[in-house]
Every structure is written in C-alpha cells, then in structure tokens.
C-alpha cells in the first residue's frame, strides 16, 4: 500500500488544504518515500501545484506521468536518483535542486539544462547563460559534426532509389558510428555528448533526409542488416498503447509461434463433475481486472489482434537487503514480450514505461538478472538487466534504467524457446533452442562503456525441442529440469565436470491411463517450493505435482535412467488438448496459475497441502484438486461482439500475489489485482 494518501497530501500542504486542486505548495520530505509511492493517479489531481519538496527520501527515479502541469520549483535533495530525463514532463520548471544524489553526475546537469527550457536555478546556481550555451551553441556544434559525419562517410552509401531494407541498414550503421566518432567538449561530458549525438542523428535522418522507416515492411529471416532496434520514451510508448475497452476491429487469431494441437470436437467444452462444482467450492480471492492493454502491435497498429504474447516476468527489486524476503521484494513493474517488442509496464497505473523493438524479431522469452556494474572509476552500482530472445536465435541484453540495448549474443542458429538466469550466478544465462540444445552462457559484466565478453560454458543435448526450463532450487548449480516436446528431462550442470557437451541424466515417466509413459509433450514446468514440481503435459485436463527429490533419488547412481515421477497430486484443469498454454507458480503464497483456451485463469491455492507433501512419507492426494477460483475473461466487445477465441498463453503473478498479468493470443495484456 502506498504511503501517500489524499489525507496525507492535504495535511502536508502549505498551508493545509481541504481540496487537492487548491494545493500550490506541498512538503513531502523525510517520509522514506520510494518511487512506487508516487501514484500518478493521485498526483494528477494536483493541477495547481507549483512547489514540491521531495527531499530526504529514497527515490531512485521519477514516474513518467505525474501530470503536474504548473510545477515551477522542485527539491529532490538527498535521494537515490540515477536518471533525470523523466523531469522533462515538467516543462515550466524554473528551480531544481537534487544535491546529494550520489549517482547523478555533471552529465545529468547538462541533460536537465537541455530538457527544461525555463530552468533558471540548478542546485542554487544561476545557470541561465550556461543553459543557453548547451541548448544553442552546443547543439549547433554537434549538429554540424553529425551532418559532416554523414556527408563524409555515409551519403554515398545511400542509392538514389533505396529500399526500406537499405534504409534500416544504413540507419543502424550511422547511429552506431556517429555516437562512437563524434566528440566535443571535455571527456567528463562524454555521456551527455553521446546522448545528444544520438538524438541529433535521429532527427537528422528523419527530418533532413526523410529517412522514415516503413513499419509495414515484412521481416526477413536471416538478414541481420535489416534489423532495426529502438527504445521508445515512456511518452512515445504510451501513445502506442490502446487501453482496451471497446475495440475498433478484430482479426481471427492464427498461431505463429508453433502449430497448436487443437482440441478434438467438443473436447474443450466438456466439464467434469468436480469442475461443475468449482464455483460452489471456490475460495474467493477477490481479484479484479485493472487494465487491458494492446502494447505489442506490429507497427503500432491498433488493428493488430494477431500478435501473440508469450512471456512476462516481474522486475527484481534492487534493494539487496529486502530481496531476501520475496514478499518484501515484490515489484509492480513487469516486462512482457511478444511480436517485435518488449514492454515494461507499471501494473498499478497501466502505464507502459518503456518499449523496446526489433523489427525483424519475434520475441518468445525474457528474463531478469541484477549485475553490479562499474559506473565510474570509483563507484559500482547494482542494475537490472533484461535478456530477451526469440525467433532469430539472438539474445538481446538491455540495461533498462539507461534505455539501452548494450549487446547481443548469437546463441543459436534456430529460434530460442525460453531463457532463464541462474539465481546464484548472476551472469549465467541458460538458453533453450529449437536446435534441441540448452546452452549455458556467461554474459559477463559490462564496463562503463558497455564493453562485455560473453562465453559459452556448457551445452546440454536434448532429444527434442526444450520448451520450459527450471533450475532445481536446492541445487541450482547442479541440476536443471526441462519440459520438452518429447518428455521431461534432467541434466547435471555442475561446471567442475570435464565435458562441455552433455546428454540428459534422467527422463521422467508419468501416468498415462493404465500405464506409465515418458513420451509426451511437457509445455508447463515450474517449482512450487524447494521440492514440489508442477508440470503440465499433453494429457488433457490434468496438471501434475510431483516430488523432485523422491523421484530423482530413485534413479541411483549411474548414467541415463528412466525414473517414475513420484506424483503428489493432480490438479483439475481444462479438458482441452491444446498445447503451449503454460503455467506458473507463486511459491511465497503456495499458488499455481494456468490459463485456458477460453481466456480464463485457473488459480489453485495449495498452501494447505505443501506441509504434508514435504514429509518423507507424504502421501499422494487421492482426488484431483479443484481450482480455488477461475477468473473468467470479461466481456470485452469488438465491433459489438465478443472475440470468438482468446487463448491465455501465459499468466504470472508478482511474488506477493498482488498483481496477476495475463498474456493472450490476441495481443491483449490483462492485469488483475488481488484485493
């Protein structure tokens, strides 16, 4: 719950006020406020606020939509700010102080001087003359250098009649070259210079030469030079998002990631007796829909209901002390991927904070890690890094706070189905590919110039395509589980073993009618706690919970062995045999989530079962466990009609189970909130 309420704002107004819209001066200092406490919906009611004091708090950045149109004076002293570009949302700002924010540098001073045209005082000093120099003289010099760089090295590379592919290629090369080679002013301002050079170069290409990229161009599979990368500002990203309520159009979905196994006639519509009783037995978790977003559209088209959304992961909280407790470290920022883009979304406000696009890519999977990076000669700081991968077999590494994709790893020659980071080795990344291999990479730690070196440490050979991977919580540096097209497998991943290429060590078999089988597609896999595995196979209507330790210990020592999974329980689920509707878990709350072929989310509260399963002689639950609740897809209308087929490809909660993010097959991200 946010520390800021309407009552607090009225009380901290100077003088105290009875209406938010009447407040002109507000003192919110020394309240231990974090960025998430600044609720844009509440602040948007402060329409006449002119002076705001946020000093002596714990802010690391500003939300991008505080909507304070009349703000003139802002005090941010003694916080933990690491970026100032969000301050451009306050165009009338005249006085700004942010002293004792250790991560801000001289480069940030120059950025705010450029962004805020009305700024007169910065940290108590009159910067009028210097700001004019930055906005005009500096910009003129850099524009001249950027133009000269184009004329000398790139103009002749562009033919008189050029294709969209040629534009993309030359644009990428030019932006990279100009940021590397155009220098101006002291080295202490190199970060600001690169920032402005990129901005000027993009404007030059767009306005002077008219090199607008055609977003409708069809991507080509192997042409690296056709790739266009872009990171949109929050404002630009917000303009690309449709807040779904009444759609303007609808296109029937065709799966593009893999061919799904569609249900047999009528199979998806059957309901067992236990399912029919679900509503009577259900534990109401009081979850309600907050937002329905359309933010992954191809070419930002609001008519795009074809793009499939595949993966979502909540951002880790950087406070290392709090991260020990998953509840305390719960975040409300989630990364989602699908089609050509990766988005960062604030679940509470529904704001798309950032959007990263690669025109020739289709992203299938994303994963977070936290790296301690060198930010200057004497300082290090933890930063969240996002890895994104998909159809092209390339892993993109994105420094989210800097809005910068700093590198890529050409991991596989075929598409990457899923990625995950080691929880104990922050630079170790696993990539599972359609080439039937799972690779372990050390992505390294980038230096202050974003130079890094990635190396392949291990290759795990599979007999079929790996779809989901999970590291065993009790020994994440020794064993990896994978759900594959042809079964569920385990590998020994310990790096002190000699061989770099390894076959699987065990294959697990599961009940199949009257017998046990290893041959089945496992398209859902996650750990509920340190020992209990949740897996979903192609067997309709069933999700298994089984014991990792009791199953794997039965293998004994030796090479490859087939072992029977020690089943603890079965979960009642949809009777569809449609594949790739994956599941997830919320270990801290004992929940399992899985979407279905009708847009619904099945939620299972297993907290009362886990203690019993954890005992050495824990017995299998005799009957299937029904969901605590099924969240039905609400009646969203498209041209007055309900969409005929909405598949829930993925559903994920934050660690505290405050938010539930639902990804669909029709380019809609749904966000639910638990009361």
TrEMBL record:
What GO molecular functions are on record for this protein?
chromatin binding
**Where does this one sit in the cell?**
Chromosome, Centromere, Kinetochore; Chromosome, Telomere; Cytoplasm, Cytoskeleton, Microtubule organizing center, Centrosome; Nucleus
Region annotated Disordered sits at: 215-241, 257-287
Composition bias of kind Acidic residues appears in: 215-231
PROSITE patterns linked: LRR, WD_REPEATS_1, WD_REPEATS_2, WD_REPEATS_REGION
The superkingdom listed in its UniProt entry is Eukaryota
One GO cellular component assignment for this chain's record is: chromosome, telomeric region
State a single Pfam family of this protein.
LRR_LRWD1
Q: Does the keyword Repeat apply?
A: yes
The answer to keyword Cytoplasm applying to this record is: yes
* Key words, A-Z: Centromere, Chromatin regulator, Chromosome, Cytoplasm, Cytoskeleton, DNA replication, Kinetochore, Leucine-rich repeat, Nucleus, Repeat, Telomere, WD repeat
**What name is this protein filed under?**
Leucine-rich repeat and WD repeat-containing protein 1
Species, as recorded? Mionectes macconnelli
């Amino acid at each position: 719950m946010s520390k800021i309420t309407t009552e607090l704002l009225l009380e901290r107004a100077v003088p105290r006020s009875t209406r938010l819209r009447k407040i002109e001066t507000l003192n919110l200092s020394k309240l231990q406020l974090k960025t998430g406490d600044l609720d844009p919906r509440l602040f948007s009611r402060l329409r006449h606020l002119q002076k705001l004091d946020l000093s002596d708090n714990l802010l690391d950045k500003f939300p991008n939509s505080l909507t304070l149109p009349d703000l003139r004076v802002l005090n941010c002293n003694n916080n933990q700010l690491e970026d100032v570009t969000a301050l451009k949302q306050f165009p009338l700002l005249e006085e700004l102080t942010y002293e004792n924010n250790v991560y801000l540098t001289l480069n940030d001073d120059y950025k705010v001087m450029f962004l805020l045209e009305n700024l007169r005082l910065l940290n108590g000093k009159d910067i009028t003359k210097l700001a004019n120099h930055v906005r005009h003289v500096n910009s003129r010099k850099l524009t001249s250098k950027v133009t000269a760089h184009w004329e000398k090295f790139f103009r002749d590379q562009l033919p008189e009649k050029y294709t969209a592919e040629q534009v993309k290629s030359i644009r990428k090369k030019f932006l990279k070259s100009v940021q590397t080679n155009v220098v101006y002013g002291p080295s202490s301002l190199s970060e600001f210079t690169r920032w402005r050079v990129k901005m000027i170069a993009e404007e030059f290409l767009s306005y002077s030469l008219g090199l607008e990229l055609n977003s409708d161009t069809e991507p080509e599979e192997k042409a690296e030079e056709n790739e266009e990368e872009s990171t949109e500002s929050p404002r630009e990203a917000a303009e690309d998002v449709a807040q779904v309520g009444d759609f303007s159009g609808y296109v029937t979905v065709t799966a593009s990631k893999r061919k799904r196994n569609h249900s047999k006639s009528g199979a998806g519509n059957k309901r067992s007796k236990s399912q029919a009783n679900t509503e009577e037995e259900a534990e109401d978790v009081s979850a309600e829909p907050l937002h329905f977003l359309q933010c992954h559209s191809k070419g930002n088209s609001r008519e795009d209901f074809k793009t499939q959304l595949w993966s979502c992961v909540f951002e880790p909280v950087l406070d290392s002390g709090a991260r020990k407790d998953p509840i305390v470290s719960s975040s409300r920022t989630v990364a989602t991927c699908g089609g050509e883009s990766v988005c960062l979304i604030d679940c509470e406000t529904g704001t798309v904070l950032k959007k990263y696009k690669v025109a020739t890519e289709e992203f299938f999977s994303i994963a977070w890690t936290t790296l301690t990076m060198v930010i200057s000669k004497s300082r290090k700081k933890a930063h969240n890094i996002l890895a994104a991968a998909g159809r092209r077999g390339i892993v993109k590494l994105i420094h989210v706070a800097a809005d910068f994709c700093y590198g890529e790893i050409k991991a596989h020659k075929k598409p990457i189905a899923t990625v995950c980071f080691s929880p104990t080795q922050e630079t170790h990344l696993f990539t599972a590919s359609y080439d039937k291999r799972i690779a372990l990479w050390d992505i390294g730690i980038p230096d202050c110039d974003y130079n890094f070196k990635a190396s392949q440490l291990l290759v795990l050979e599979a007999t079929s395509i790996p779809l989901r991977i999970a590291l065993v919580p009790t020994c994440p540096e020794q064993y990896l589980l994978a759900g594959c097209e042809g079964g569920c497998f385990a590998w020994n991943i310990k790096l002190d073993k000699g061989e770099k290429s390894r076959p699987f060590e065990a294959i697990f078999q599961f009940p199949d009618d009257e017998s046990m089988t290893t041959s089945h597609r496992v398209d859902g896999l996650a750990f509920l706690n340190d020992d209990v595995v949740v897996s979903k196979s192609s067997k309709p209507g069933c999700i298994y919970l089984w014991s990792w330790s009791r199953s794997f210990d039965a293998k004994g020592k030796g090479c490859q062995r087939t072992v029977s999974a020690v089943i603890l329980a079965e979960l009642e689920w949809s009777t569809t045999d449609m594949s790739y509707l994956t599941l997830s878990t919320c270990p801290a709350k004992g929940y399992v989530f899985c979407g279905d072929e009708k847009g619904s989310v099945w939620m299972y509260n297993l907290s009362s079962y886990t203690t019993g399963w954890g005992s050495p002689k824990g017995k299998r639950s005799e009957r299937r466990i029904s969901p605590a609740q099924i969240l039905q897809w609400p009646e969203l209308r498209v041209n007055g009609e309900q969409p005929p087929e909405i598949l829930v490809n993925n559903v994920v909660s934050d660690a505290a189970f405050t938010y539930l993010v639902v990804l669909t097959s029709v380019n809609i991200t749904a966000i639910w909130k638990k009361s």
